[in-house]
Amino acid sequence: MSIQQIKLANIIFAPIVSEKSAIVADKGNQFVFKVAKNATKLQVKNAVEMMFEVKVESVRVLNVKGKIKRFGRTLGKRSDWKKAYVRLQSGHNIELATA
């Protein structure tokens, strides 16, 4: 593996499996991933194409703000993170159960 491939492998942390992501996957051939906070759309696209060997049509990213939670008397804050919606070209699919 080259250094570029190692950097791309560190962009995607995990797929997000939820009811909303399942609906989006069925309707629009989109998959949702938790990605690095400093990741760009192009980096996410290249990482998904390299890891899953599919063609990506578009990528949308959004920053998720961490919630403020109470732990006894003190207030704490969950960390912020970034989410990416990846739309695949028709004919391509990612099997998250086997990946």
TrEMBL record:
Q: Which domain of life is it from?
A: Bacteria
Alphabetical list of InterPro entries matching this protein: Nucleotide-bd_a/b_plait_sf, Ribosomal_uL23-like, Ribosomal_uL23/eL15/eS24_sf
- Keywords of this entry: Ribonucleoprotein, Ribosomal protein, RNA-binding, rRNA-binding
Q: GO: which molecular function terms?
A: rRNA binding; structural constituent of ribosome
**Per the UniProt entry, what are the Gene Ontology biological process annotations, in alphabetical order?**
translation
Record has Ribosomal protein as a keyword: yes
One matching Pfam family is Ribosomal_L23
Q: Which HAMAP family match?
A: Ribosomal_uL23_B
Q: What organism, scientifically named, is this protein from? A: Methylomonas methanica (strain DSM 25384 / MC09)
- NCBIfam families, per database record: PRK05738.1-3 (NF004359), PRK05738.2-4 (NF004363)
- Protein function: One of the early assembly proteins it binds 23S rRNA. One of the proteins that surrounds the polypeptide exit tunnel on the outside of the ribosome. Forms the main docking site for trigger factor binding to the ribosome.
Plastid as UniProt keyword: no
What does the subunit section of this Swiss-Prot or TrEMBL entry state? Part of the 50S ribosomal subunit. Contacts protein L29, and trigger factor when it is bound to the ribosome.
Q: What is this protein called?
A: Large ribosomal subunit protein uL23
Per the record, its GO cellular-component terms are: ribonucleoprotein complex; ribosome
Q: What family, per the record?
A: Belongs to the universal ribosomal protein uL23 family.
